[in-house]
Design goal:
Layout (H helix, E strand, L loop, with lengths): L1 E5 L8 E5 L9 E11 L1 H7 L16 E8 L10 E5 L8 E5 L3 E3 L13 H14 L7 E4 L5 H12 L3 E6 L2 H9 L3 E4 L5 H7 L3 E6 L5 H8 E9 L12 H6 L3 E4 L7 H20 L7 E6 L3 H10 L5 E5 L1
Parallel strand pairs: 8-9, 8-11, 9-10, 11-12, 12-13, 14-15
Antiparallel strand pairs: 1-2, 3-4, 3-6, 3-15, 4-5, 5-7
Helix pairs in contact: 2-3, 2-8, 5-6
Length: 319
Amino acid sequence: MRAILISEPGDPDVLTPGEAPDPTAGPGEVVLDVVAAGVNRADVNQRQGHYPPPPGAPEWPGLEVSGTIADPGDTAFARGDRVCALLAGGGYAERVAVDARLVLPVPDGVDLVEAAGLPEAAATVWSNVFQSAQLQPGETLLVHGGSSGIGTMAIQIATALGSRVLATAGSAAKVAFCESLGATAVDYHEADFVEKAQELGGADVVLDLVGGDYLERNIAALRTGGRIMVIANQSNAASTFQLGALMAKRGRVWGTTLRSRPVAKKAEVIRGLREYVWPLVEQGVVRPIIDTVFSLDEAALAHRRMEEGGHVGKLLLRV
């Protein structure tokens, strides 16, 4: 099958179309004919040599796909079912094998290509903001990178479930887009998100993709009893903070990843999505926000678009 391989760690040009072995369905697995794959920051990190795939995962990138069931194996799925799936890797390809517990039906009303933008962002938000941090209706979520794929998903789900959202973004246009989804938003070039959070009474939950010096500022933005979920360190900087400031807030800082979790733990996240988030998608309250759809062979262009930072929402590869 055709896949996008990484010839060596480096810039986007190391993403090279090539051939990979056709996958087969093991026990409890299905094989998908991939229609589209999501592009994520983790894929960029893997391409650069900073984020190797977990044991057993394909060497080529791709953490989420949409498509149709090509081989249902010994599962309850049927050939031709329209689905999307969360992967440990290997999505930049024509086919992929995946544990059936990580496969979801494409929600009614969602285009099959656009469905590739759902699994990773929705699973990241649900597992961190709701399953771990236990954001409640009426509480305030502070989300950094509000115009990203994860940010736009967090704003929509939290707003739909009755929470307030404060988002940071890097331009007036991105601020306006976040506000169109229901958030209060600030341009981090122009305003201090800590002051805005404090005006709103403090953040109960913070979803942080930036790391670095944001950690100390996140603590300052917390309400008493607040929870900080650190899911990435895009700043690539060390984080330092005064323990006393965190202790005074009786706050918690959690560092988490999704990709390396055991399949059984990921399956818990997927069940939560099916029960609580998929109905919101089918009602049209939550939707995948798609910036650009590239062809599979344009993976390098998609990575450049992500690294330039001008996108709003998800970048996809159409197979």
